[in-house]
Fold each of these.
Amino acid sequence: MFYEPRHGHGLPRDPFKALVAPRPIGWFTTLNAAGQVNLAPYSYFNAMGDDPPVIMFSGGGRLDANHKDSVANAETSGEFVHNMVTWDLREEMNTTSDEVPHGVDEAELAALHLVPSRLVKPPRVKASPVALECRYLQTIEIPQNGPGGPNKVVLGEVVGVHIDDAILKDGRVDLAAVRPIARLGYAEYTIVETVFRMLRPGVEPDRPTSS
């Protein structure tokens, strides 16, 4: 089949998100002006650079307060923290995706324990094996059809990295053991369980690379 998004796809559900997959899940803690914590997941999330390391997240035009809060808090406070979502934390992540009123602590709803970060004020999820402390860089606005626009893409520089020593094996993060989950299309997810390695042409096996 072929379709033009502006004219519709003719299927029961929009297939677009299933075509750009898997997408890592950004799970962000932020603080509002009153010091209240917001915790929300995003499937529009990824790394944008590595020197300095930069990550991004986008609400995709979502209207619910939970996701609006994350963007507004990052912009006004200038800080946020990404917490890696693993198989063991899937239910807690899903709980924090619920639409709740402003000021409601999603971490408390999900029975998650938060601990202080080192360099930024928003806390991190203790049970998450990886956390990235970020300082806000900028927001890029892109078109969003329908209500709720524009769509805001938030960029932040990673200034602090937490890695649980238990997931390090021979100096590398053992992702197969961590089992991070990622978003597919519809209500479907996947798990990183099988890992294989390929060296770029011209790279010697024992020579360090950037990846």
Amino acid sequence: MESGDLADILEIERASFTFPWSASFFVQELKVACARSHLALVEGRTVGYVIYWLLPREIDIHNLAVAPAFRRRGVGRALLQAVIGDAKRQKLTRVTLEVRKSNDAAQRLYHALGFVAKGVRKGYYSDDGEDAVVMALELESR
């Protein structure tokens, strides 16, 4: 992900979330040394993205979204599989994320890929105070 990708990313972000990240937040996130990303492209246009942190023992997914016209076509699954592949290549033991408690569709996808709910973070989302479900995919040990 580069600054030239931001227009498409922001369009997807605004269509996906009630409280979307700002352009400056994306730029700030990508300046973090451990930040990584993948884009899903169709005919050269970004239709999905994932941003995550590559940490010493695990990957922590921070944001994932797919353009509405490309949902339920495997784009989100492919992005998650790319992240899981990165974790395996790095011999990491876990992939974690937080998901809104109300986001049943995302939770179903995560469960289908082997993620398990590990707990709830009460009032996690500062925009509206919604709880987050903490989910983790445990990978084979090093």
Amino acid sequence: MLSDIEYKKLAWHSRRGMRELDLLLLPFVEKCLPQLSEDERAQYRRLLMEEDQDLYNWLVMREPVPHPELVAIIERVRGAG
């Protein structure tokens, strides 16, 4: 179960300062984050460790995702927007 503190931490780290990324990540946080399993939340935390430009390129499919463990969560984020 997602605690309020963990939700707030992940929501805060999802605010990237790059408007385009915020438009992709914040709707995902609001709509989907509370329903994610612990494994999916771990994938999302891992995703947030990546550089902004890489995240953006993967989310808009400009570049293939080089990390197979992130493909599923990236697809979830794309679907939330």
